[in-house]
Amino acid sequence: MNISKNDQRVLHVLALGGEIQYRRENGKIHKVICYTNDGLVLSNCTLDSFKRLKSKKLISSKKGQPYRITRLGANSVRSQMFQRY
Fold this sequence. Notes:
single chain, YjhX_toxin, alpha+beta, 3-stranded antiparallel sheet, two-stranded antiparallel ribbon
């Protein structure tokens, strides 16, 4: 599956325990913020990258909770050195 570098970075953060919080306006998501496991904000996560990841079903939300990585997303992400403990 083709995933851009910025989308890969977002998936890496989500794989390590991060989450994407969102704001709705008139029923549609208009703002997303990606938090790392440490509580820092990832600036690479934009609304466009969020829509791409969601359309490929690499992230999902359950019962109004923040978006997290799916099993397909975890299998799609390429491993990096900081993930190999």
